[in-house]
Amino acid sequence: LSPPAIAGGESGDTASTDTTTIDTTRAGGELDTIVTYSADQVDFTFHPRLTVLTGDARLGYKTMELSAHRIEVNWDENMLFAEGRLDTVQRDSSEGGGDTLVWRGLPKMRDGEEVVEGHRLVYHLRTRRGRIIRGVTAYEDGLTRGQTIKKVDKDVLNIRSGTYTTCDAPQPHYHFWGRDLKLIVKDKVVARPVVLYFGPVPVAIFPFGVFPAKGGRHSGLIIPTYGESAGQGRYFRNLGYYWAPNDYFDIRGSLDFFERYGTLFTVDSRYAKRYIFSGNLNGSLINMRYEDRVDNRWWVRLNHGHQLSPTTSLNISADYQSDASFRKDLSHDLHERMKREIRSDATLTKRWQGTPYSGSINLHHEESLTTGEVTQWLPQLHFNRSNSPLFPQKEGDKPEEAAWYNQLFYGYRFEGKNRRKVDIIDSTYWDKGYYELPELYRSGIRHNLSFSAPLKPLKYIVLKPNLNYTEGWFDEWLTFTQRNNMTIDTVKHKVEYKNLRARRTFDTRLSLNTTLYGLFHPRVLGLEAVRHKLDPSLTFTYKPDFSEPRWGYFDVFEEHRINPATGDTLPTGRKLYYDRFGGNLFGSTSRTEVKSLGLSLNNLFQYKRLKGDKEVKGELFTLNLSSSHNFAADSLRWGNLSSYLTARPNLAATGAGGLQSMISGFSINLRGTHSFYTQAVDDNGRLVTVNRVAPGGLRLVKFDVSTSCNLKSGRGAAQRDTIETEGLSPESGGDWGWQPGPGPWDAGLSFHYSENHSDPANISKNITSSLNFNLQVTRNWKVTYNTNFDLDRRRVTMTNISIHRDLHCWEGMFNWTPLGAGKGFYMRISVKSAQLRDVKVERQKGRGSLLGF
């Protein structure tokens, strides 16, 4: 390699240039690629062979880029020398006057993702090793400084008298100092010894330290936290290892030790392969010490989803634990502690592409943590044929050319169930560890065939007849006999599948609906137009009374009552109905004849207004009404009248300022249930509904109203606080202390009120409200307040206060729950960097679990 030839050039010749390219690949060169450089001034010498770049100097070699005020290239030695320059800056008189010296154009070298800065740099081009004085280098969110930084390998830097921190302030708020540091690019920083400084004050010393310098997922140790409390004694938490061997799998294992309770081992793993499968496996095992025994308690959960083919998938969800109170005692999640049942499922789903067929097989396990009752479905089978034309159109025909018989649809659904249920009779058997529990097995199959035909006899009216036929097959049924003393004996019959008993039921519906529109121009309150959309619907339903003898599904007996004076049994005139298929897996047999006409009116009101030259459209409110009339009933033929009104006005769109512009998501909902009949007290003193019109035509049964909204301030960022005001005073004119001001805030409000008038003499009420308030007090202080009120009982049911403080490179959080579930507090001060998230101080009390989570 030699510098470019310059005609008549002698040692010390000078040439001004912008960019020069040197070919280093010719014979005799020691380097194997091009070196490019540029500067305000370029000087060449031939004895020795030097190129000196001065003023905004830049040089590129392979993947390396170097910039500095001055760069010197020694071509004989293949060495680079780079440095900055001192500049004199005159300070303002208000700052005390005088001059100061500052460095300009300090060397900055970039090689791939590696960036190193310092005051003076020496670098060998061929070996790509070098040294930088008073250097700084950054990896991920960590910053490493050193008195001397020496590059000894492609990805290894040795640092003398260095510091490591994630704080980017000129004077870091904290740092780790080490006499000797080794930085392995994209891996770690190793130091010995290590001293932790807060500002200039040393607070702790360690024989060595390892700091991560990797990005993304990577394997590594998890640093534990230590502490001591009155409830747990001395403890350490989260000592573990995270292993990520590839892009498809990772696992995290951690160990917690509590002096008074035992050792808790936790495993969390995830796995995934795109478009094929994904899942996770989590579990915990604790060696729990009590006064007189040691128990091994555990919990495990598996979730797995597998796409076996484009049309077949398998989903598994398994959840098991060693005892009923494991989550309540040990979980840190409030919802997990309140859970009183656990479920496990395995479901295989299949659909046949290009056909209306689909099916699934499910295995289900469910256990009550309160009673210990176990229910298992082994298995549940489902097969569906979605609605399809009974007589489809010919291929290529247009939908509008369909004949009436092409509008006849049918669908089929199959269900098969086999249930095993273990009933707990005496919970003391469970505690003693020996018991014999009754196991109840039931099986059943149900077929459902439906027919429908959406027709349009008139242009704007849709007429839709529907017929549903259901047939159930059961492996057990009941027979009943009445003894001479008029008591009823029940006999249960169990058979094999070849002798299954069948129950056949059906119902039919005929619905008529249409849509009507109305347009009004009120020109009040800024409204240009109001559109009313009305959807009336009539539905007639018929279902026979399957308790009639011709169906053969019920045994019917006369009710008798014992005369206390004579001891004789006397008929009461009432009939007793006993369902032969009662208690089966698909519900009891209907014994109520239905000839019902359902009526509903759905109303939607929308508006249009002008805002300048633009049209603004929105929804005013919806109002839905529904009721029914049963022609087959001998009394009380009219069903309850249900009404529902909801409004979600966009107050900001009204153009009004002030409070309205701050409100969003406002909604109000009203529900009401009214009866057309009055109430009276029967001979037994019970309040019953009688077949008399209620006073005024309607009697209120239930009513509730709920409303919610969000409020948000329109102000900008909050005032700064004192984190950057060190050394300032009120007289200096700087930002001194906390500047109070209305910072940005948002709040969520909700209110719910309900009444139940089933017993007018004893009306029950429920009045609750909640508030969620977030306030950015200053740029660094944030307060969150959540509370729930029971206004009827005049008490607070739950309150939570959270305070967050941004400490630049650290953050502080205090969470206090003075009332309700999870009562207690939790405080944490920690480094914000994800690389050092385990550097923290924690304090907590209460929070619901034995281990203080």
What's the topology here?
Layout (H helix, E strand, L loop, with lengths): L13 E2 L4 E3 L12 E4 L2 E6 L2 E13 L2 E11 L4 E5 L1 E6 L8 E6 L3 E4 L2 E4 L2 E5 L4 E11 L2 E12 L2 E10 L8 E11 L3 E11 L2 E6 L2 E4 L7 E3 L2 E5 L3 E14 L2 E10 L3 E12 L3 E13 L4 E16 L2 E10 L4 H5 L3 H5 L2 E11 L5 E12 L5 E16 L19 E14 L4 H6 L6 E14 L2 E4 L2 E14 L1 E7 L5 E7 L6 E14 L1 E5 L6 E17 L10 E9 L6 E11 L14 E18 L2 E17 L10 E7 L15 E13 L1 E5 L5 E7 L5 E14 L32 E12 L7 E13 L4 E10 L4 E13 L2 E10 L4 E8 L8 E7 L7
Antiparallel strand pairs: 1-4, 2-3, 3-5, 4-5, 5-6, 6-7, 6-10, 7-12, 8-9, 10-11, 11-13, 12-13, 13-14, 14-15, 15-16, 16-17, 17-18, 17-19, 20-22, 21-22, 22-23, 23-24, 24-25, 25-26, 26-27, 27-28, 28-29, 29-30, 30-31, 31-32, 32-34, 33-34, 34-37, 35-36, 37-39, 38-39, 39-42, 40-41, 42-43, 43-44, ...
